[in-house]
Each structure stands twice: as C-alpha cells, then as structure tokens.
Give the backbone structure.
Amino acid sequence: MNFSIPMLIITTLCLLIVPVVRAQNWLLDYILPPDYNRDMMPIKDDVRHSIQVNVTLYINIFHGTDDELHLDTDLYLCLKWYDYRLLSLPEELAPPPVNYSEPRKIYKKVQITDYERLWIPKVYFRNGVSSEVVNSLRDIQYASIYPENHRVKFCQRLSTMFMCHFITSNLPFDEQHCYFEIESLAIWNDNITLNITKFRMPDGNEQFRVREQITDICRPRLMDPFNPNLGYNLTQHSCAFARVQLVRHVGYYIMRYYTPTALLVFMVFIQMWTPTVCAPGRAILTGVVEMTLKSVSITAYGETTSRHVTSLFWWQWGCQFFIYVSEMEYALIFGWAHLIVDKHHARKNNYTSPDGYYFGKNNWFKKSGAAVTKCLHFIYGPIDFFADPVNRNKVDYFSRVAFPAAFFFYSCLYVVASFPPWAWKYRMH
C-alpha cells in the first residue's frame, strides 16, 4: 500500500506533463512558414550573412581518466541564434485570461521536443573523443522558441570525453590546461560565427581544483614549415573554446605520503639517541621503517600511469636515501668503537695505531677528527668520547645533528625546486 501511493503520484504527474509538451509541439505549425526548409540557413533576401550563434556551456561533473589522457565530463550545451523566418503566433492561440477584463497573454516562450523540424547549427567538439546524449528516462534535449523576437535556443545534456594530456612531471604540484573546443560544420563555413557567452565549471572535485577559466575564439592555422611567418587556414569553420587550469588538492598528498614518510625518517633519527648496546632493537626498528617506507613508495608510484619522474617520486627516493645512510651510520658506529679500542691498545703496547698506519700521523684524518670533536664539545659540552667509545660514540653524537640538518636542507631544496609560483597562494580544502 505504501508503494502504490508514490507510484500513483508519479503516474498522475506524468499524465499532466506529457499533454503540455505535446501541446507545445503543435504550435510549430503556426510558427514555421509553409516554405520553411530546415536544411537551409536563415538567410535574408538571398544574401548570405553571418549568423551569430551564442554558446552556453555548463560543466556539471568532470574527472580525469586513469590513463591521464582524457577528461570525462557531464555537461549542458545550449546554442542560441536568431531565425528571422519564424512567424509570430496569432493572438487567438493564447489561452484566455482568468479575468476576461484583462488582455490575452501571448506565448513568450514555446518549448518543444520536435526540434528536428527546425534548422539547428551543426557543431561538434573538435577535441572530443566520444559524446552521447544523456538518457534519463528519455533523451535530455529540447528546443525553446521565442516567437516575438525570432530567437531559438537548443539545449542538450551530454556525456563527453575530451582529450587532455596530463603532464605529471611535477606531480602533485602540476597544473593542467584542458580545452573544450566547439567547431561548426556548416555548408557555408564563413556564415556561422560561434561565441561562448556563458561558461561555468565546478570549483573542483576530489582530484583537482579549478583555478582559471578563459573563453575565446580559436582560429586554427597550419604554419608553413619553411617560412614560419606564413600560414594558411587549416579549416574555415568557426571555432570557439573554453580553457580551464586544473591543480591538484595538495592536502591529500601531504596527509597520505609526505607526512608519513617524514615521520618514518624522524623515527630513524630518534634511534641515534639510543645506546649503541641496544643493537638488536635498532636493527629491528630500521628494518621495519625501511619496509614500511617501501610499501608507501610503491603506493605512491601507482598515483600516475605516466613515465614521468615526478616530484613525488623524488621525495620518496630522498626519504629512502636517508634510511639507507642511517644503516651505514649504524655500521660505522661499531667501526669507530673498534678503532678507539685499537688505538688504546696501540698506545699501551707502543705500536702504530690503525689510523696512523693508514693515514699517517698529524694528517688530514686527525685534523678533521679534532675539528669534529671541537664542534661536538660546543654542542654537547666537554664529553670524553674516548672513555666509553661504545655508549658515547662520536659517530652517533655527530649524526644526531648532521642527519636532521641534512634532511631539513633537502626538504627546503625540494620545496624550492618543486613548488610552482601558484602554490604559495594555494588554499587547501
């Protein structure tokens, strides 16, 4: 019982709406003259003149395809022009007023579905790959006629795929310029002038944000390869286009990739503050961080199908580099500890120490070590690194400062090299 009531309401509404549409269609017999020919352009006194066709293009939904070569859209396309051949409706066709003392109200707008009887400009999307009329119970396309000023408007709701080759070398800070090009296919090519008077697009979607919208008239020209100053028209058809600039939502990448990978690198830096004797724990932590970072990197590599080496990849590789260098640092601390122990034995037994054997005495190795020790004393205070070389390891103390400083420098260099000028004014949603 509850299901039958909504069905009854819908059926009643359909019965009320359908006769109205049919009633509008029969008015074409009065609007179109007997000699009207839908295959002929609206010309006057056998003189060809340019017909101004205004285009309204509303993009309802858009998203980039997985192959990053196309832009899939759901849109409304309306064409408006004047056809002087249309006749005004007789006054007696207007419905009588409720109050007979008032004059009859004329038909200011006639909406019809039998648009095939009208002359309609033939246009197509020049950079479109595929296009079809959206069928929501019935095809969404209609024509509106304004008899008093002989104006016609033809509208369609289309599902169209446009060519738009994404250049992702600076992903996720890349910007894409996508075009919606409309061109005429008239018999007399120079008698139709297309002009996009209204263009509207959503502020963005889950992938991109729209930063710029431009409309203009395109005049395609093919340049002479032997003389760039000369050119000839590739086609004489009228063409208009709308161009949009798309930028990605950077917040998505910051939360999913940049922040987690930076935290993983910081975790490796923290282990440099643990004692050297905690060797098993440090080895396990480094291995877990490395495997986790590789898993995140594999996911990041799947963000784009192009062969570009993107900015996101450079960040992942940089973080992996710091993990690998930390493993080398972990091995170096044991080598330095054994070196100090061997030096003590060499001095005690009066024979040449390993550093003196390989590098000589009072050489660059010793001077560099003294300079590093002086810097560490300035930061940490007067610590005797030779008293307990295992727990007070000079390599660890040096890495606690050098690794975060190097990572900070790399981050600054990455920001300067990757961020385009618009990124500083970007508002993340």
Notes: The chain has two domains: 41-84+112-248, 252-425. Residues 10-23, 424-429 have pLDDT under 50 and may be disordered.
